[in-house]
Amino acid sequence: MPDSAQLVIVANRLPVDRVDLPDGTRGWRRSPGGLVTALDPVMRANDGVWIGWPGGTESDLEPFEDDGLSLVPVSLTEDEIEEFYEGMSNATLWPIYHDVVAKPEFHREWWDSYVTVNRRFAEKAVEVAEEGATVWVHDYQLQLVPQMLRDLRPDLRIGFYLHIPFPPAELFAQLPWRRQILEGLLGADLVGFQMSGGAQNFVRLVRQRVGHKTHRDLVYLPDGRTIRAAAFPISIDAEGFEELARSEGVTKRAAEIREALGEERRVFLGIDRLDYTKGIVARLRAFAELVEEGKLDVDDAVFVQVATPSRERVEQYRILRDEIDRFVGRVNGDLGRIGTPAISYLHSSYPREEMAALYRAADIMVVTPYRDGMNLVAKEYVACRYDDAGALVLSEFAGAADELRQAWQVNPYDINGMKSALLEAFHAPEKDTTRRMRAMRRTVLRKDVAAWARSFLEGLSEIRPEHGKTVRPPRT
Ligand code: G6P
């Protein structure tokens, strides 16, 4: 563990999960997220440190190394998990930032906890950052950290990246703490968004609500500092996914899945965190109606829906889980036959290998969020289809729709439109699906997550180049 770091990543979660080891002790396992894959090489080249919450309420955790990565845990109390994480982050900000798909709740104690926890993260970062270091703060849970860092350590180069959408001014304006959040973000030198629309929303709000001068993607502060707000669409480790999809284990597993589902049936697939932004019920409804109307037959088609448990103590997530349970039960009760349910529903999380096997086994991947910053599942599916086969039905409200233009794009609020797209994708001639998949694969393989990290860090070092040290590119 280095005493001080040139690069500090600050994210709500550490890139490892707590696991019970066979010898009875507790250890860590690298979580499958793409972020750590992207940042791993640049962390190593810069003696980087990652600051984050390990999940749970353990409070006496010391900084540690995991497979060469230096990790600094930040503890949360039971109350903070309720107020900062489940409350302010996931029952206030999450719905507001996703088009108010669910009703946001506003509680002043939640906000106080958000401020306290953001300060804890900022103080930890300051402890480990060397003079002139780069600190890269991630996501909606930590929007106050940039300005807190700047107040404590003006020598730092500070980047912030929002992984979820940044809402239009009309929705953001509902937040009682809107000004504090904007000011928190303005502590950064570079504020990154998934889409240029998010960056524009931010700049407009800064002009309207904070009163700073702006021009295009720049904000001019009275103290002479300039901040840039721009889009950096995130991606995945595309080569890594392709390699996994080609592996013997995954090939074998994909064949097993096909066999279990019935070789002659075509497979629709949805894989999501169980979240109300993902439009899970609407897409299942579209599929079920097609079966009901006889346009699809359960002997020819099955919908496999994987919903990964998420934020299970937040009320809206519990309500959604019950709704899906009921809906799937009813559809299978009404439309299934013995041994051939219409929907095969799995409420569970799976390792990357199993996901890759599912992607390979699927004929039609269905990704229909009401609003999504990017949606990496869509990109993972494309990366795994090295055979150029498979169709993608994709919501136009996912960030990924901007790049994956050859998908069957749908409006998830329009059930009839989704039904048509599902049918078209189901009946599409191979020539058509191949042409579309090839084009999408070129996009996904060309712009991977390493390119994303590089372009953000380069963008960060171009602002006020005289200030702070420059992050070194990874050694090759
Ligand atoms: C989204 C957010 C991440 C978050 C992840 C999982 O992708 O952008 O910040 O970590 O969901 O959610 P969780 O609440 O389990 O961290």
TrEMBL record:
Q: Name one GO molecular function term.
A: trehalose-phosphatase activity
The Gene Ontology CC terms held by the record are: cytosol
Record field: transmembrane: none
Q: Which domain of life is it from?
A: Bacteria
Q: Which GO terms describe its biological process?
A: trehalose biosynthetic process
Which Pfam families does this chain map to?
A: Glyco_transf_20
Describe the family membership recorded for this protein in Swiss-Prot or TrEMBL: Belongs to the glycosyltransferase 20 family.
Name assigned to this protein: Trehalose-6-phosphate synthase
